[in-house]
Amino acid sequence: MSVIPPGPDPFAADRGGPAQPLLSVSGLVKHFPVRKGTGPKKVVRAVDGVNFDVLKGETLGIVGESGCGKSTTAKLIMGLIERDTGGMLFDGQAIGERAMPWRSYRRQAQMVFQDSYASLNPRMTVEQSIAFGPKVNGVPGREAVERARALLARVGLEPKRFAGRYPHEISGGQRQRVNIARALALEPRLVLLDEAVSALDKSVEAQVLNLLLDLKAEFGLTYIFISHDLNVVRFISDRVMVMYLGRVAEIGPSDSVLAAPAHPYTQALLASMPSLDPDNRTQKALLAGDPPNPIDPPGGCRFHPRCALAEGVCGQVEPPLEPVRAGNRVACLARQPGSGHSAAPAEVLAA
Amino acid sequence: MSATDMTHDAAVELSGLRVAFGKTQVVDGVDLRLDRGQALALIGESGSGKSVTLRSILRLFPAGRSRIEGRISAAGKDVLALDKRALADFRGGDVSMIFQEPLLAFDPVYTVGRQITESIQRHEKISAQDARARALALFERVRIPSPERRLDNYPHEMSGGMRQRAMIALALACRPQVLLADEPTTALDATVQIQVLLLLRELQRDLGLSIVIVTHDLGAAVEVADRIAVMYAGKIVEVGTARQVVRDPHHPYTIGLLRSRAEGAMDKGSRLQTIPGSPPDLANRPPGCPFAPRCFLAEDRCRREMPPVGTISPGHDVACWRTEEASAAYRAGPQPVAVEMA
Where does the ABC transporter domain lie (chain A) (predicted)? Predict the structure, then answer.
């Protein structure tokens, strides 16, 4: 069942068929200049050459420490900030070019942010906020309000009670439901969830995660789900992308990446999740210190100063992102045949 | 052994603690005991009163706008009886606290080292040099790299994890017996969180420190705490050793918290078990058990009468009428919870 009648948007239809990725990102780069004193000009390499595909109907989880570029990636995908270089294809069409102008792309890609309060206009009622997007996109006022009410009901907020309330009059979990409803008001195909459940209490978080699963099935959505909580990502994602200092460290099916991680960084991330077993508490932190500064990322493999497997070659060669097993791509020399790393697997005979 | 000796053994003892702001009864009858050298975690959702309970131990609320009833004893002192001067000595000297956001807890216009030496000199007669030497030793203790240089940093020059370590150093500066930690790792990355949790555990062991940590994350609680107390709507609903609470929960709320965790879901795509509804409005507290409206086992009695605290096994206390049924339901394994929010 669809709450929203099919709009006039000619781009909304599936074009390339199920095999074509919904979103294809290649060579995405974003550097922010920093002005500090009179020294040489420096840049924050927030996103530094990122490639990935988001398949139709899947949930891609993005994980990493703060400063790894996961939120910048999300903003670049939404066009909230301009990319330096790199290409983005939405269902096979280049975003921002004639076939797919930003305006029609944005109707199909929507975002939910971490701070549920800051992302709603405090002077608008919940219903006005949800109806706003459709209205500016040409839906008649009355119809937009009806749509907003239907969506409110769908996310579990009774329209009679909640439609007229202001953001400060409802709880954090309810506000996040409103944000989700607003994101769905334009019937998007892609929804970016940037730490959308991180600020919620655990019991509320579970409710919202269930809601997201239901909505995905009902509206045929594709999610990009950004979170620092690996347990949540494991639960909701089909594939996971691990980022480190603006680059992809590992990407693959979440079962294989999070159950048998190949990259030492993914392993360390997993080991730092608190155990829920009082008899088996964590004894040692695999990573010391804080995530490094993306202003001067180390040469070679960016993870090598914190890596247990690091060797001389890691400081010199930047590892490419290469498949290690079916569907799993890893940027680590120790996993790549012929890389010069002593732990590298032997060269595989031509397959 | 007399009753007073018993109190002396406890690092913190709260009895019948009630805290109200205006008409809102935020903490509603908390009894809690922390033995010396132990670590206790208070867990609960936002608004459960866990932070208020913690802060009342240092009496961090303005007297005019809050009402504290009951008894608070910490580090052998009756906290509610302290006068202004004694309270200032008590804070930091006997009991000290670290906060969720160290950037807000530090003064931005003084170096971190200066703030630590100031605190030491406030509490002890000690030369500036000796105070600085102690601050340096503390920085080494909490393992801040290049401590000498870092003492002269302003708070904004440090990273989040390092600031929290510096905060811990400041809290330990006057050798308190009890350390209170209010969501100390919530603002940190997972990789840094585990380092800070391990540090707290190490300090507890090496310095014989007693720790009360407030967190909403059951995982973080299990990593540091010997005992866990679960709070809901201003009351402690279940308390026991970490093992008792996590392995053998007897309160439906604790069970809900354990079940709603994402790692509990075995199959991808299966739905998470949730606790329906949301916490009660503390200004209009319903009669009976505050959890009853969200509870899968609630019966009429629960909505009428607050259940008394019952002992399941030594040290494991639960406030629920239906502990047997709750425990049986948990042992039976995950099953659909009766009420589900749309």
Answer: 23-270
